[in-house]
TrEMBL record:
Coiled-coil stretches: none
Ranges of residues in domain NADP-dependent oxidoreductase: 19-302
Protein name stated in the entry: Aldo/keto reductase
One Pfam family here: Aldo_ket_red
InterPro entries associated with the record: Aldo-Keto_reductase, NAD(P)_OxRdtase_dom_sf, NADP_OxRdtase_dom
Superkingdom, taxonomy of origin: Bacteria
Record keywords, A-Z: Oxidoreductase
């Protein structure tokens, strides 16, 4: 198959679309055998995929070690590594806050380079805004790492329009990683227009709403705490997504492929990042469906903006998101 190639913003690297989100390979939605995780990454790369998205806190470093293992016999030049940093975990795995101080960032980066077994990462970004650290300080420090060759490009994640502007005034930002899907469309108000004005791409995660769209329905890992999967919300949302089945069947596609196609159709500056936990799911991810304007309009009628029930994160996590302010 031939995958689409997109540049992340005006200044970023060329990547294949969709990208592979690797978080689910480190226990986020239930256990995954490491051998199967390696096979998933290999299946994506063998099909021509290039963009691997990870975070140093995925599995408390496990995800980076897994990617290193998968890349042992691969050319570094064939892979674009996008890495998030700053989220703090306790020994029990619980998230305990953010740390985006310049000194902390350099420490996080040093450990990521070691775990990944590389001399640079292609895109480096704070996972969330640290309320105690001006974004100018964080981005300025990453820019120093760009100058030293340890980082190629600077990204952002889950920040609002004002923060995006402040960051872009310090150094070029290639992309914003943020949740964007049929069920999560708030970025269309101010965040997406701001990114387009500034030439910043979007790497969209949560495209399948953590499996709510086209998933197995099994509750495990992070889904257990997600309001959209909880009683009262789940039934409404599953009925909402079910409206897509007839259209998907008419296109010989799955509901998941339809949802990925919808995000892809929103613009060449948007690259979906989708997870896979089994090799067979990689094919679903990559065998895309092309949607025209009429198709997109039909999907918007079936699943109107704002029709989802429940927040995308628990209340405390939502309150901490700069992108939700």
């Amino acid at each position: 198959m031939t995958l689409d190639i997109h540049r992340l913003g005006r200044t970023g690297p060329e990547v294949t679309s969709p990208g592979l989100g690797c978080m689910g390979l480190s226990g986020a939605y239930g256990s995954v055998d490491d051998d199967e995780g390696v096979r998933v990454i290999h299946a994506y790369l063998d099909a021509g995929g290039t963009l691997l998205d990870t975070g140093d806190f995925y599995g408390s470093g496990h995800n980076e070690w897994l990617i290193r293992r998968a890349l042992t016999d691969r050319s570094r030049d064939d892979v674009v590594l996008s890495v998030k940093f700053g989220a703090l975990r306790g020994p029990d795995g619980a998230l305990t806050g953010q740390d985006a101080r310049p000194a902390a960032m350099k420490n996080f980066l040093a450990y990521s380079l070691q775990r990944l077994g590389v001399d640079h990462v292609d895109v480096y970004r704070p996972a969330r805004l640290d309320p105690g650290v001006p974004i100018e300080d964080t981005v300025g420090a990453i820019a120093e790492m760009v100058e030293k060759g340890f980082v190629r490009h600077i990204g952002l994640s889950e920040v609002g329009a004002e923060t995006i502007r402040r960051a872009a005034a310090v150094a070029p930002i290639c992309d914003l990683q943020i949740e964007y899907s049929l069920l999560s469309r708030d970025i269309e108000d101010t965040i997406l227009p701001t990114c387009r004005e500034l030439g910043i791409g979007i790497t969209a995660y949560g495209v399948l709403s953590r499996g709510l769209i086209g998933g197995s329905g099994v509750l495990a890992g992070g889904r257990l705490a997600t309001p959209r999967f909880q009683d009262g919300h789940r039934e409404h949302n599953e009925a909402l997504v079910a409206r897509l089945r007839d259209m998907a069947e008419a296109k010989s596609a799955s509901v998941a492929q339809l949802a990925i196609g919808w995000v892809t159709a929103q613009g060449d500056d948007i690259v979906p990042v989708v997870g896979a936990r089994r090799v067979d799911q990689v094919g679903t991810l990559l065998d895309g469906v092309t949607l025209d304007a009429d198709d997109v309009a039909r999907i918007d009628q079936l699943v109107p903006r704002g029709s989802v029930s429940g927040d995308r994160y628990p209340a405390a996590a939502m309150a901490a998101l700069d992108s939700e302010r």
